Fold this protein.
Amino acid sequence: MTARTEWEVRVDRTLAEIVSGATTFGLYGTQHPRAVEGVKRLSAQFDSLLETESELAIVLLGEELFVQGRPFTRVSRHAPALARRLRRRAIEHATFQLGLTNDEVRGFLEDLSRKDDSPVRSRPHLQVGQVELSERELGGPDDESGGQKRQKLATVRDRVGVIHECFVDFATSRSLAVSDLTRVARALWIKLGETPDPFVHLAPWEGEERWPAVHAHNVAVLAMGLARFAGVSTAWCIDLALAGLVHDIGKLLLPPEVVERELELTGDELEPMFDHPQLGLAAVLAAPQLPPLAAIVTHEHHLNYNGTGYPRLARPRRPHPAARLVTVADSFVVLFTARAGRGRLTREGTLIWLDEHNGTVLDPNWAGALRAMLDRPPLPAQPPG
């Protein structure tokens, strides 16, 4: 992945300076010498590019980043990192024009580095926004987000992609994009309203790198589907879906080789895996926008119905009902959609496992609800409500 022409080399350097500058602003603030120097370097790159062209347009369409209409994702190794930042801030185009000042560059990097949901603003020589969309997206006039246009979340792959980006950013910055995960949870509510059977919304295996996102998506879908089946209110369903999305967030903080061998670990090798609920709890508590239910579920989803499991308790007790629900959903997803099919059971084998662990590992009520859902014919579509 190397730039080929002189122009591509200059664009690659510019993309690198945008990513580096936003990271520096986020880590050190706007007045740090590294931030000041980063603004100077990026301004110099733009000055060089804008000598021959009146404007430079960066456009994000799906997974591809375009610069002046040319695809750059495979040309520049910095393009994917910039695409993730733009996508997180719901930016689909950024156009830099001749006359761009140091103050405008500084303001752009400052906006891009923020951890909250404040928008990246346009400036006299810099316009940011979204391209015109032809497909249905989550975020119309009736959406709870206030009608802002947002990244499309209509398909399973769209939603898994957003979760994956959130997890990649969290693993590197320890900052969790709660607003993006909330949009995923709301999208799941809408999709289950259209087709209530959660099994039709499960994501397939997409490779080792995206397994954490696929797993989180499927646990959230099934937890919300079970909650809807039990008549739980909309607000609680959204909170449960968010809890399902972040329940394993602590694994992103473990060594990759431990997580990749999760299904093969034995004996003392399992000790690092026992730490992930506490690591996840600390991460969730550092994201106050998440509901308290997410913290409870993240900490307790490996506590069994009979009080065994982990984190190890001095006095065994039953976990919170929401954690017991997510444990059932988590168990099914691991059994039925396990990483690359390793350990994957047939539908019949999954049902046998559920029956064998009913009342010990699994809450019998939620396990029974899952079994009933598996045994019933598909529900007819109905409006969300």
About this structure: Residues 156-375 form a domain with the Hypothetical protein af1432 fold (CATH 1.10.3210.10).
